[in-house]
Structures are given as structure tokens and as C-alpha cells.
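Example for tutorial group B:
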């Protein structure tokens, strides 16, 4: 979501502003739609959740479990965007012809195959998550440098260096979170938290609401990956003890963390959107308020209607 906002946002926000949209609205649409991407496969956050859950949750099932919730969230955000756009009488874009749509789709198809390799490979059991990533990287390398030729080959070294820094940060997080998880288990923290929550209420609805509130509060002060890696070993036993499927719980946690990327004071995507657009943070937050409503409603639907997350994984076996 951060990469989405910083790269694409720097192009889309000026385009929307030049077309007559308010700048704060343009930022709000960009940052919220970026966070919707954490639900759509292939999401590395799903892989982090599967690792934090101890390997007992299928990455393929998580990928498929996030697809329908991600689409629902996308539709909800589009409806809110349309309502605001009509109310403020924003200009409409030019309708593309079928020929133009086909040309754009054809040009993008080779690039989109990278996602299809990862998702399809994992879902149909052709690769593990790691193997599918390796195959996709080789494919992306060939398409980028020898088919599209939009990046010169001399930039390959810089790309590797940036990738190495990102991988080092993620691996350090995973290592320290694993140690923290072991320590939590040794001190029986998950059991104590479970007892504390069940002590407040044994009602499933109340416990699920408390878990959501806890994750949303953590999202205000922590980044997404640490929350998933640290909170999952604590909260997953509680969720399974009240009959929640681990896949449904994983989708719930990921969306909670996605909302956290948009909530001050440590909403990373909010900061990036504000920096890219040069719109003050308070204006961005105010413009984002209607979209928070869409995200929270979607979160509640995922929490209390298991079929939204579990239907597709069950159909695909």
C-alpha cells in the first residue's frame, strides 16, 4: 500500500487535480484504494500471517479467501467515490472505445501475468509460495528488460540493492517476531489474554468486536507487518476457541491492519499521501472519513459472515 501510494499516487493525484477534482479528495481516493490492495492476492501480508500462525494455515486458501472481501471493499469505495463526485459535481472522464480498451488490456497483459503466475501457481499446487515468487521474478525480469524495455539494464544493480534493503528489514522483523512469539508462548501470554477476553464476556459477537477494536488501536500506533507477526500468535487461539476459521480470522486481521495504515498518528499511507500531494495531514484525514465508514462496514461483514471469506476456498477445495 505504501509503495502503491508513493509511486502511482505521484502520477494520479496531479492528474485528478488537473481534471478539476479537489486535491484532498484525490488524495483520499488514492490512499484508500491503495490499502484495498492488501486484500487482493498475491498479498505478502497473507504470507506473513500464515508464517505467524505457525504454518497451519494454507497460503492458497488465504489468497482465495481475500479475493471476495477485497472486491466488496473495492465496490464499497467506488460507491462512496461516486456519491461524493455526484454531490460535488466533479467532471466526468472520456468514455474509451472498445478498440482503446483492447489496446490497453493487450499492452498490460504480459505484466499482469506476473500476478497470475504467483496466485495460480500457489492455488493449483504447482509451486510453494517461495517457488512461485522466484519464477515470477525471473519472468518479470525478462518482460521488463527485454520485452517492454522501459528500464535500462544498467538499473538492475540499483533494483537489487533496494530489494536487498527491503528483504533485510522483513527478515529482521520475522526473526525478532519469531523470538517474541516463542517468549509469549513460554510465558503463557496467549492463554492469559484469552482468559482476560473471555472474562469480559463469553459472547462470540462481543469477543470478535473486542479483537477488532484491539487490532484497530494497534494499527494507530504500529506498522502492518509487526502487528500481524506479533498479534497473530496471541489472538489466533482466542479466535479458534470461539469457532472462527483461521482463514476468516486471517482476512479479518489483514483488513484491520490495512485500515491501520490510514489512521493517525502512525498511518504510513496517510503520511506518504500527504507528502506526495503536499496536502496537510489534517485535510487528508478529514477527506478520508467517509471512506473509513466503507472499510469498517466491510470489516464487520467479514467478521460476522464467514461465507464471504470461506466460500471461494471451499469451492476450490
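The residue assignment follows.
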Amino acid at each position: 500500500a505504501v509503495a502503491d501510494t508513493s509511486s502511482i499516487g505521484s502520477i494520479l493525484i496531479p492528474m485528478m487535480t488537473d481534471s478539476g477534482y479537489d486535491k484532498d479528495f484525490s488524495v483520499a481516493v488514492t490512499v484508500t484504494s491503495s490499502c484495498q490492495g492488501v486484500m487482493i492476492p498475491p498479498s505478502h501480508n497473507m504470507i506473513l500471517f500464515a508464517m505467524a500462525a505457525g504454518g497451519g494455515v494454507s497460503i492458497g486458501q488465504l489468497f482465495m479467501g481475500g479475493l471476495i472481501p477485497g472486491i466488496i471493499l473495492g465496490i464499497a469505495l467506488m460507491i462512496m467515490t461516486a456519491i461524493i463526485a455526484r454531490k460535488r459535481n466533479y467532471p466526468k472522464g472520456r468514455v474509451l472505445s472498445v478498440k482503446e480498451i483492447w489496446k490497453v488490456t493487450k499492452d498490460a497483459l504480459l505484466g499482469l501475468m506476473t500476478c497470475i503466475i504467483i496466485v495460480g501457481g500457489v492455488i493449483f499446487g504447482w509451486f510453494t509460495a517461495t517457488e512461485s515468487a522466484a519464477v515470477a521474478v525471473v519472468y518479470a525480469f525478462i518482460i521488463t528488460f527485454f520485452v517492454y524495455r522501459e528500464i535500462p539494464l544498467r538499473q538492475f544493480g540499483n533494483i537489487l540493492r533496494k530489494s536487498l534493503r527491503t528483504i533485510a528489514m522483513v527478515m529482521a522483523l520475522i526473526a525478532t517476531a519469531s523470538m517474541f512469539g516463542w517468549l509469549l508462548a513460554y510465558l503463557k501470554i496467549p492463554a492469559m489474554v484469552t482468559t482476560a477476553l473471555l472474562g469480559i464476556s463469553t459472547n462470540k459477537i462481543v469477543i470478535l468486536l473486542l479483537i477488532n477494536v484491539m487490532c484497530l488501536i494497534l494499527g494507530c500506533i504500529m506498522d502492518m507487518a509487526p502487528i500481524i507477526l506479533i498479534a497473530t500468535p496471541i489472538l489466533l487461539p482466542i479466535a479458534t476457541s470461539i469457532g472462527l476459521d483461521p482463514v476468516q480470522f486471517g482476512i479479518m486481521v489483514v483488513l484491520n491492519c490495512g485500515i491501520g495504515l490510514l489512521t493517525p498518528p502512525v498511518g504510513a499511507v496517510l503520511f506518504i499521501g500527504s507528502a506526495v500531494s503536499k496536502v496537510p495531514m489534517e485535510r487528508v484525514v478529514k477527506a478520508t472519513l467517509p471512506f473509513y465508514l466503507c472499510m469498517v462496514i466491510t470489516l464487520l461483514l467479514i467478521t460476522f459472515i464467514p461465507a464471504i471469506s470461506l466460500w471461494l476456498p471451499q469451492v476450490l477445495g
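The chain has a mean pLDDT of 84. Compare this with the pattern of hydrophobic and polar residues in the output above.
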